[in-house]
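User: Please work through this fold.
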Amino acid sequence: MRKFATVAMAMALGTVSSVALADGNAFVNTNLGASHYQVDNPFTGYDNSFSKTGKAGALRAGYRWNSVVDYGVEAGYGYLGNATARAAFPDGSIDRQQVKTRGWLLGANLNYNIAEHWYVGGRLGWFRARTSYEERYTNVSGQPSNYRGWEVATGEYFGVGGGYNVNKSFSLGLAYDTYRAPNADNSYSTRIGMYSLQAEYRF
């Protein structure tokens, strides 16, 4: 994961420095919102609580060239919250399971100004996902046992959004992104959506 992160940031920063005098803008944007995991409740049929939604966010930097549709590259990091399930069984034991995903981003970015102050945009790319699993089980005697594990694999992401250009340097908007986080051998994957507010600064 460190190697992927180093390559991603080097590519973004190298692109920005090499085209500093080109017709375009370097940018930094951030998203803050909520994630939604497309996972099933593992405790259906028991007295349980289940949440597929958590706090989420992302930070990206890159460079965008000016055209009819502005286009560019981006690199960054996404934190996709978690999904949590908890069950109390008839024998008095309790089981709690949690999955959370975060990872590095590298991709392409598009932006179209539909009017002086309004824009729509999109992005897509690779998502180097680190997915962590945790289970806490307490038996009928009250003795706890914990399991923790994680996997790293590369999936993809894409997103759309739109909003308001406050001025030439700053904009605010809404965005939806979806990420695919596969397991280590790509035998299955988890799809995670993120609804967010987005702020971008261009320089």
Q: What stands out?
A: Residues 2-18 form the longest helix (17 residues). The chain is about 10% helix and 70% strand. The two ends are 29 Å apart (CA to CA).
